[in-house]
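User: structure tokens for this one?
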Amino acid sequence: MTINPDQIVFFQWGWFKINSTIFFTWLVMFLLTFGSWLVTRKLTSEGELSRWQNLLEVLVNAINNQIREVSRQDPGPYLPFVGTLFIFIAMSNILAVVPGYTPPTSSLSTTAGLAICVFIAVPLFGIARQGVLNYLRQYVQPTFFMLPFNIIGELSRTLALAVRLYGNMMSGTVIVAILLSITPLIFPVVMQVLGLITGLIQAYIFAILAMVYIASASRAHEETAKKGEE
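Assistant:
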């Protein structure tokens, strides 16, 4: 049994290779892009709305409300990033019910990439809201000696995001594979349903934690800026 989907190679030509993680990541992106085009090509604000537009509006409103509750700010600037994180991870995990599909989120390279996106987004949103100096000032509060500890905290937070998602998804995939080989059909089906629910929960947790980090950075640096002005 292959635990790491990076080890499943579909095509290789010299140094160039396409493994399971790359293939299914691009498959998910294609499905999301094509599905978004289908849903949004006939958007309307008048008359009867299609069921897909209704579903899209419910999803966007739900994400907006969650961002507003977590950040206590206007969700507009954060919706594209946080919403994309949630939808990509959720779709990657939902497709796990399809035979032969391996979730790219069960690869550490994918989860690390997503965590790095959050790592980069936190200071970008903070700087956009507070400015470079006000943002960087927090890293040397209350003294300059706290700088290395604050940097380590940022790095460890990114590592925790990557490992948490990877560990949960990889362990679920392995458990289902083991049960399929040693138990009757019905029990692994139940585990697949539980794995589906777990995958959605993990997508929600990842997106919420990303928003928490971004919101805390904005609020912390805003408070630091106010203290500096006083």
